Amino acid sequence: MALACAARARRPPRRHRLGGALAVAVAIAVGPGCGNGDDDSPVGAIAPPGAGGTLVWALSEAPRDLDPLLSTSPAGQLLSRQIYEPLTSRVETPYGEGRAASGLAESHRRANGAVWLLRLRHGVTFQDGSAFDAEAVIANARRWRTTSAGRRLLPDLAEVTAPRSYLVIFRLDQPDPRFDRVLASPRLGIVSPESLPSRSGRTSRLREPGTGGTGPFELRDRGAGRSLIARNLDWWGSPRGFGPALDEVEFRVVPGDEERLRLLKTGTVQVAEDLGPDQLARARRDPLLTTAKVGGAGTAGLERSVRGIPRGIGPPSLSSVWLTRIGAD
């Protein structure tokens, strides 16, 4: 895809299990591993609500299913990624400071062979006010194991247990040294058990896709040809300086490569995806635009006021994106 871009009370700790065998109670110390040692103390001030501006992103097609597990369209995955966070994703600060930290899993490490240990971040809540903890991960893992989409993504997942409320153990049928990267897939964004028809997570679809995430943005409006997300004021990353810097991101469906380029060049939108080869070449020649690789979307052109779009694999989180100038529409 080519782009051009101009509470509820916490439950007491419980022991949980997922899989056929009862987990043996053991004392597990989570030692140094991936994600440990991140300095996520507060940094520079984030733009206060109302001062961050709105980024307008022109889509070539409407986002389909916003359930992260079931969303297969690029537009749907881009939008759902802002609402739902995968366990092992990382977050970055806005304003070019370049600091990164672990996400929902504060640390993760491969214990031995096919066993992975994840220590969860404390103090995170879902957008419905419920607590993010091991019980929520268990419900999500059960949904992954009992749906065809989940089994395709995690074919070797055998069992998930939680000896403590913020420690989760993933056991696989066979060793996978890249399992942490699999868990970073936006398709495995964590959803609130309260948003599932069955809180157990077994073969469940979301009641209202686009709600019940932990992410930096929440869905405010969705209609024909337009979706609007706004900053989640209770996002766990904001007190630590991880944004979001933007107040809102508006996704507009604009069929036609030429029309998306026109809106980009006039400043009506700051991001225009899926431009054809001719339009992309013209965007590259425009001094007000630039080009880059953006996630799994392929070549992108950025309107030069846009800063901080991550370069990586898969749909980017927009929590670290900001605008250097905010113009009136």
Please compute the radius of gyration using only Cα atoms: 20 Å
Unreliable spans: 5-17, 20-33
The CATH homologous superfamily: Periplasmic binding protein-like II
Physical arrangement of strands within the biggest beta sheet: 10-11-12-3-13-1-15-14
Biggest sheet statistics = 8 strands, mixed
Structural account:
- There is one protein chain.
- The protein is globular.
- The two termini are 27 Å apart.
- The strands form four sheets. It has an eight-stranded mixed sheet with strand order 10-11-12-3-13-1-15-14, with helices on both faces. A five-stranded antiparallel sheet has the order 2-8-9-7-6, covered by helices on one side. A two-stranded antiparallel ribbon has the order 4-5.
- The chain has a single domain (1-17, 48-329), classed as Periplasmic binding protein-like II (D-Maltodextrin-Binding Protein, domain 2).
- It has helices at 74-83, 134-145, 148-153, 179-183, 257-265, 277-285; strands at residues 3-5, 16-18, 54-59, 90-92, 100-102, 105-112, 115-120, 157-164, 167-172, 217-223, 226-231, 248-253, 271-273, 289-293, 299-303, 306-307, 322-323.
- A hairpin with a 2-residue loop joins strand 6 and strand 7.
- It is built from six helices and 17 strands.
- With 329 residues, it is an alpha+beta fold.
- The model is unreliable at 5-17 and 20-33 (pLDDT under 50).
- 47% of the residues are buried.
Salient structural properties:
alpha+beta; D-Maltodextrin-Binding Protein, domain 2; 8-stranded mixed sheet; 5-stranded antiparallel sheet
